[in-house]
Write a structure and sequence with these properties.
Structural class: alpha+beta
Order of helices and strands: EHEEHEEEEHHHHH
Low-confidence stretches: 31-35, 121-131, 141-147
Number of strands: 7
Number of helices: 7
Distance between the termini: 93 Å
């Protein structure tokens, strides 16, 4: 959790919210746990009605692979702030519906925890080890993205392919094991989802591999007998 040096005004504002908030009605069914819960809209409405003047909040939604992360920020007009650590929710399927559902759950869960909204029925912790319940996603959609890092373009990958082919010819080996080894050493897990950082790491590994190969080749060449000069050959004729 990150926060301003002083959070006295935020503490007062949160206390006001806790005193004034009216717990919303649990009017949505959870078919997985056979219980009722408060939809995201109900949680947001209950909080907004209880917020004192000069106090606000916002949420940031990001995704990385099959995971949604939601961070909640509290802000006061005095300049004080609190940034809560993100809640990470796994996504079962790689489609917009699943990402939207996970986002809705994460936003509702974190807001309820921060502002003291009892949005779920207490099940004595029985569902703590289970996956997040499937909810109808909120109307706002977040576009799933694999990573916050810039992805390598197809042109970048084609250039790397050409380099691999050229190196494999010089090193007299098949391009496939060279590619597999360089990916492993660079800790690149997917050619398709390769980031620019991954590509640079692979390029570095390939360059290192080539330098080592050339050094070994130079050592082998240095052990070969040097070509004899014309005078040395003439002396051996004993004429």
């Amino acid at each position: 959790m990150k926060k301003s040096e002083n959070i006295s005004e935020i503490a007062k504002a949160l206390n006001e919210v806790r005193k004034n908030i009216k717990q919303p009605e649990k009017n949505a069914n959870n078919p997985f746990f056979k219980s009722k819960y408060v939809m995201l809209e109900g949680v947001v409405d209950a909080i907004d009605k209880a917020l004192p003047k000069g106090f606000a909040y916002t949420q940031e939604v990001t995704s990385d692979g099959n995971q949604i992360s939601v961070s909640t920020f509290l802000m006061h007009e005095s300049g004080q702030y609190i940034q809560f650590d993100p809640l990470n929710v796994p996504v079962g399927k790689n489609d917009a519906q699943a990402f939207g559902s996970a986002e809705t759950y994460a936003r509702r869960y974190t807001l309820s925890a921060v502002f003291g909204v009892t949005s779920d029925v207490d099940d004595d912790g029985n569902s703590a080890s289970k996956s997040a319940p499937h909810e109808a996603p909120h109307k706002r959609r977040v576009t799933p993205k694999k990573s916050g890092k810039p992805m390598a373009s197809q042109e970048d990958k084609d250039t790397l392919k050409d380099k691999i082919v050229a190196l494999s010819k010089e090193m007299a080996m098949n391009p496939k094991p060279l590619t597999v080894d360089s990916m492993k050493n660079a800790k690149v897990t997917s050619w398709k989802e390769m980031t620019k950082d991954d590509l640079n790491a692979m390029d570095h590994e390939l360059t290192t591999e080539l330098m080592e190969f050339r050094q070994k080749s130079e050592k082998k060449d240095s052990k070969k007998p040097a070509d004899e000069s014309t005078d040395e050959l003439w002396d051996k004729l004993n004429v």
